[in-house]
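Exam revision sheet. Question 4 asks you to relate a sequence to its structure. Input first:
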Amino acid sequence: MLLIFYKLFIFFYRLGIAIASLRNKKAKTWIAERVHWESRLTKKITASDKTIWMHCSSAGEFEQGKPIIESLKRQFSDYKIVVSFFSPSGFSVAKNYAEADVTCYLPLDTAANAKKFVQITHPQLVIFVKYDFWYYHLKEVAKQKIPLLLVSAAFRKEQAFFKWYGGFYRKMLGFFNWIFVQNTVSLSLLNNNGIIHCSISGDTRFDRVQEIANCFTEIPRIKSFIGDKECIVAGSTWGDDEKFLSTLQTEDLKIIIAPHEINAEHVHQIQVLFPKAVLYSELSKAKKETNVLIIDNVGMLSRLYNYATITYIGGGFTKDGVHNVLEAAVYGKPVIFGNNYQKYLEAIQLVEYGGALTFSNEEDLKSILTKLLSNDVLLENTGNAAKQYVAQNTGATGKIISYIQEKRLLTN
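Answer key, structure tokens:
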């Protein structure tokens, strides 16, 4: 019965995207990039290629997948890596990634599409990152007896898998040969529901941010902009975050804002809140002195956090919640974010570990900043706690690669 509802969901989802595409740019891209997907894919993959297929929902899951991709490329260099995405935002950040031989969109989840996709890519190993469970694609992989792994998975008791009606969803988990979860809570939830083909590996995002920090390269303009002043680097910010940050403008504090969306409309909204701000793209020719810098490019944020006295992570006042806290924590700087973070284990644990502080209103935010900036010991201890939290949770990639090697899922 639920399969019938699933088919209806897919049908109406496609219809909804089509309607939305009349006005929404992302929806329009979603449809356009899936036109003639078979011929596009066939041009990139030949029958003689050995391939590994990794699926990521979007940009965040892609970051989790990168350490695995890069490790696989080092050890199994004769395989082509095919990375599929569901969302345009994920595809856009990955299309120029050198380690992926093929970057593509996952076609709509129908039995015919799934069969054709698996036939064209003919992978020797399939890896899904964290979630984004598509029934027919998973079923087709399992039907073809291709090794199928789920990595960096995290489960919560309120999810459909663990409800009385969750049989259909649990069936999808049964398609996987092995499930690597982030924590004991996830493992217990699976085990208590009869799913025992799983183990704890941790989250590959820790490996990813540690690798980025280890390969850090300077950004001279940022270093020059900050000078000898204290600085807040605010990443992935939304409107509410920027309103809070606008209350912190003083002559003694530098603020660098890297918004989640860098379209002209959003950047203008930030400039209204910060009239004296300068865009990074105009920094070299800026004539006015300013304490506020708006980053109007993509790809710099993970390095910006290294220059912060205190880091601020956006999203804590949105429906989806706070963004990636690990990118900041790895540099050993105190982390601050809004009060909607309960869906993200790493944010919860970072607070418990003493490396992050949360706030609900302007008064809370100013109180936290005053305490940190007026107490060097507290500032250092909070930053050290953040850095240690990341260091103690690395190693997930190694566990996953070891499983692949021990089970001989790939051969050179």
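Marking note for examiners. The chain has a mean pLDDT of 94.
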